[in-house]
Specification:
It is a single chain. By secondary structure, the protein is α/β, with parallel strands linked by helices. Helices cover about 40% and strands about 25% of the residues. Strand 1 (about 1-10) and strand 2 (about 10-15) form a beta hairpin.
């Protein structure tokens, strides 16, 4: 599993390069993602390559969300393909995570948050 990292004006965009996030690689994902989590991190996971997520994968994503929330950071997801998005909706994870269709929408949402805080 590879995670390509991009820093766009302080927003960390992590492109997950794997077809699945499941029991076979969830631990590796958590280890790699933990390196991105520092206090105040604003992070986007672009999951466009994922075709499958199981309960271990969901647990790994939830772990990242909890760690970021505890450290004053934020996590948003984007690029979910239809079957993965359907799973998130089935298990109600779409109510836990902020999910955007595109990376650009996720980036704009962070910028809106900053403008709202400043206003």
């Amino acid at each position: 599993m590879n995670i390509d990292i991009e820093n766009l004006d302080g927003i960390i965009i992590a492109h997950l390069r794997a077809e699945a996030l499941d029991a076979s690689n969830a631990k590796e994902f958590k280890t790699k993602a933990a390196a991105l989590i520092i206090p105040g991190t604003t992070l986007i996971f672009n999951l466009g390559s994922l075709q499958f997520v199981d309960s271990s994968g969901l647990g790994a994503l939830l772990s990242c969300l909890r760690q970021l929330n505890a450290s004053g950071g934020a996590l948003k997801l984007c690029g979910l393909v239809k079957p993965v998005r359907a799973l998130f909706e089935l298990v109600r994870m779409h109510r836990v995570f902020e999910i955007f269709n595109t990376q650009e929408e996720a980036i704009r949402s962070y910028r809106k948050d900053v403008v709202t805080l400043v206003d």
